[in-house]
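Fold it.
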Amino acid sequence: MAPNDAEMAARHGTTRQRIADDMAALHADLKGLTEDVKRLGSHQVEDMQAVAAAALDEVENAVRRNPLTSIAIALGAGFIYGVLTRR
């Protein structure tokens, strides 16, 4: 039997409500995912800052232990950079 207009309208309304509910659930899921990504990203930034600080401390200590070697390395690197960028 073919559905009448009232049944069609009821089904249409039910479908719309389900779509609206699904959209609201999707929005909530995306919001939660965004917060998770932010939190993980901030932890990664903190970890990278700690690694960079440790590397900087290590370089500073190496320069203090061997200042002449450090100067020679800097001069050599500068010379090579100059030669490569001239061309």
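Helices lie at 5-65, 67-86.
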